[in-house]
Design goal:
- The structure holds 2 protein chains of 2 kinds.
- By secondary structure, chain A is mainly α.
- Chain A has 2 domains: about 55 residues, no CATH class; about 240 residues, Orthogonal Bundle (MetI-like fold), CATH 1.10.3720.10.
- Chain A is about 70% helix and about 0% strand.
- Chain A is flat and about 65 Å long.
- Chain A starts with a helix and ends with a helix.
- Chain B folds into 2 domains: about 50 residues, no CATH class; about 210 residues, Orthogonal Bundle (MetI-like fold).
- In chain B, about 75% of the residues lie in helices and about 0% in strands.
- Chain B is built from 15 helices and no strands.
- The chains are: A mainly alpha, B mainly alpha.
- At the A-B interface, helix 2, helix 3, helix 5, helix 6 and helix 7 of A face helix 1, helix 2, helix 5, helix 6 and helix 7 of B.
Chain lengths: ~300, ~300
């Protein structure tokens, strides 16, 4: 601002007959106007609202947000709360399992389709269609399939396997696996597509060279292709991980966090504190912890992604 | 396993090798695996369909995988126009209409804004535009739970909390990162000479956008529409927070119908309702085919 002001006054003083240069602020005006929504979104929503929540997580807000700072009290309460620890533990188990299985299954499906199969499009369409469905629909369908009285368990018992027991929706021990089955069904197609794109990006000559050297196909994948696809794997990991931290709809639809609190998740805890328990400070502290975990995932990725580019 | 590499090689290597047998053990294994997995992926859809076409007595007797002995469309009718959520018993049709009222304006507004924005970022850079863009993309990773409450306060302060307009606004905002990325990358990949030639001819910001960029980028607009329609239609979190009982979108209403504790569980109605809710994104998915893949790939690469 001050720079442009000075330019203007300088121009006015000299009184040159040439046309005044337009102020720097107004140059490319349309471009700036078009970017107002983006500037608003970044500054007010992403930065502003996030900072607001972080700030209020240090207050003792209850029913209404108030600025009575209590230091780290909310965080101490949070990490001392059995329910939160339970939610974290659930998320860790569910998260690690779905991370591993999504990557493995996604990559496996991609390698199968990469064998130049006939009807690749049909198979891909089938593997990916669950991704078009919402988590609510996914959760409800699997709730029905896993229903103990009519679903898989009963069908297998009717077929003669009397002792078969798989009732994840009402068994606290295995409820996370019930969620996992539904989550994998919904999400593996996307990872398959990303992996397939990665596989297609690999030079045919690599395959020819491996063949000339007489390396078995599976070994070529493990020893050559997977290391080459490291960036794709990292992207997939970041994508899955940041999705897992937010997992909410799926659990709400399938188990509502039950039985008891056996499938409680941090996101559910946050929502419960904010809108159910009217315990805002706790909700803000818990959601800030969610943010911190996303940041922890993102930093190595950003380092790899952007640090690598500079070198190249 | 050695066999597999030979077959692969036969397709990539020099032509004129002896033709491979269609029914080699490798092929049988490959297609067998693929078909088994495909069946597994299709089972939920199949179960949804057959359950929704059965009567309750048949469901209580039989197993969920058996096809209906007597096809009835009663559950569909009931799910659409009679299923109860709390005291309201007018079925999913209300949620459907709400979802339409939410999705249509959200999709149009968010794409209109993001496309112009992406165009400005690609061709009309200004100081700081890249910095804002980076924050915008990183913002897509922030868990929604962090921003939900302050946004509710903001919406409340302008009187939009609990209204469809507020919800449309929220969807527009959270659609910004991925859409802006999509459009920016697309416009950046267009030859720069095109833009420069138009500039030389005296075209300004808007005339270049409407006369050159827009007509040339219809495919990416289709991708954006697919991405947004499925994304917004499938949303649950924003719907449950920023709208109120009468205005709940279809997903929220569906969850309320199926997971309500009172009354006898009518599984066939539940599945019909679930299928109805999934139908819109499914139809879009099956019609759009490769464009859908392109949309999610664009979103996945860096988003």
């Amino acid at each position: 601002m001050s720079v442009t002001d000075r330019e203007n006054t300088a121009g006015a003083l000299v009184r040159e007959p040439v046309a005044r240069r337009p102020s720097r602020l107004f140059r490319n005006m349309s471009g700036k106007i078009a970017s107002i929504p983006m500037v608003f979104t970044t500054l007010v929503i992403f930065v502003g609202c996030t900072l607001w929540t972080v700030l209020y997580s240090f207050t003792g807000s209850g029913m209404l947000p108030r600025l009575n700072f209590v230091g780290l009290d909310q965080y101490e309460r949070l990490w001392g709360s059995a329910r939160w620890m339970n939610a974290i533990e659930n998320l860790a188990i569910f998260g690690v399992l779905s991370l591993v299985f999504t990557i493995v299954i996604g990559f496996f499906l991609a390698t199968l389709l990469d064998r130049k199969v006939r009807g690749e499009d049909a198979f891909r369409t089938i593997f990916l269609y669950p991704f078009a469905l919402s988590f609510i629909v996914t959760g409800l369908v699997w709730q029905w399939i896993l229903n103990p009285d009519f679903g898989v368990q009963q069908v297998l018992r009717d077929l003669g396997w009397e002792s078969f027991a798989f009732n994840p929706l009402h068994d606290a021990e295995i409820v996370l696996y019930g969620l996992l089955i539904a989550g994998l069904w919904q999400g593996t197609g996307l990872i398959m597509c990303i992996m397939l794109a990665g596989l297609r990006g690999i030079d045919e000559d690599i395959w020819k060279a491996a063949r000339v050297d007489g390396i078995a196909t599976w070994k070529t994948y493990v020893v050559i292709i997977i290391p080459m696809m490291k960036p794709v794997f990292v992207t997939a990991l970041v994508l899955i991980a940041s999705g897992i931290i937010k997992v909410y709809d799926l659990v709400i639809a399938q188990t509502s966090g039950g039985p008891g609190l056996a499938s409680d998740m941090p996101a559910i805890y946050v929502m419960q504190q904010l809108f159910g328990a009217q315990n805002l400070g706790q909700g803000f502290a818990a959601s800030t912890m969610m943010l911190v975990s996303v940041v922890i995932i993102l930093i190595p990725w950003a380092y790899l992604e952007f640090g690598g580019k500079k070198r190249g | 396993m050695a066999d597999l590499s030979v077959t692969a090689g036969a397709m990539t290597g020099p032509r004129g090798q002896k033709p491979k047998r269609a029914l080699s053990p490798t092929n049988i294994m490959l297609y067998g695996t693929l078909i088994v997995i495909a069946v597994y992926y299709l089972i939920p859809l199949y179960v949804m369909v057959v359950t929704s076409l059965k009567g309750m007595p048949e469901i209580r007797m039989g197993n969920i995988f058996s096809p209906p002995m007597e096809i009835t469309f009663q559950p569909w009718v009931k799910a659409w126009s009679e299923a109860c959520t709390g005291i309201n018993c007018d079925g999913l049709s209300r949620g459907f209409m709400n979802s339409v009222y939410i999705t249509v304006p959200s999709v149009i507004i968010s794409i209109a804004i993001a496309s112009v924005n992406g165009y400005a970022l690609a061709n009309w850079k200004f100081k700081g535009s890249e910095a804002f863009f980076t924050i915008l993309i990183l913002g897509a990773f922030i868990p929604f739970q962090v921003m939900i409450y302050p946004i509710a306060i903001l919406l409340g302060s302008v009187g939009l909390f609990g209204s469809l307009t507020g919800l449309v606004l929220v969807h527009t905002i959270f659609g910004m990162p991925i859409l802006t990325l999509l459009f920016r990358n697309y416009f950046s990949s267009m030859p720069e000479e095109l833009f420069k030639a138009a500039r030389v001819d005296g075209a300004g910001f808007w005339s270049i956008y409407f006369r050159i960029m827009l007509p040339m980028s219809m495919p990416i607009f289709v991708v954006a529409v697919i991405l947004q329609v499925t994304g917004i239609w499938n949303d649950f979190l924003f719907g449950v927070i920023y709208s109120s009982n009468e205005l709940y979108p279809m997903t929220v209403q569906l969850n309320n119908i199926v997971n309500s504790v009172q009354g006898v569980k009518e599984y066939n109605v539940n599945m019909a309702a679930t299928l109805l809710t999934g139908l819109v994104p499914l139809i879009i998915y099956f019609i759009s085919g490769k464009l859908f893949v392109r949309g999610i790939a664009a979103g996945a690469v860096k988003g």
